[in-house]
Amino acid sequence: MGRWFNTEGPCVQAKHYMILPSARLPEVPGLVARDRYFVVHAPRQSGKTTALQALAAELTASGRYAAVVLSMEAGRAWGDDLGAATRAILDNARSAARANLPAELHPPPWPEASDGAILGRAFGAWSWACPRPLVLFLDEIDALEGRTLISVLSQLRDGFRLRPADFPASVALCGLRDVRDYKAASGGDATRLRSGSPFNIKKSLRLNDFTLDEVRELYGQHTTDTGQVFTPEAVAYAWELTRGQPWLVNAVAAEIVDTMGVPALTPVTAEHIDQAAERIIVARETHIDSLVDKLREPAVRRVIEPLLAGKTVNFAPFSDDLLYTIDLGLIRQTGAEVEVANPIYRNVITRVLADSMFAGIPDQPGPRSAPTADPPYSARPSSSRPTAPATPTRPTRPSSSSTLTFRASAFPPDTW
Ligand SMILES: Nc1ncnc2c1ncn2[C@@H]1O[C@H](COP(=O)(O)OP(=O)(O)O)[C@@H](O)[C@H]1O
Ligand SMILES: [Mg+2]
Question: What is the pTM of this model?
Answer without folding.
Answer: 0.85
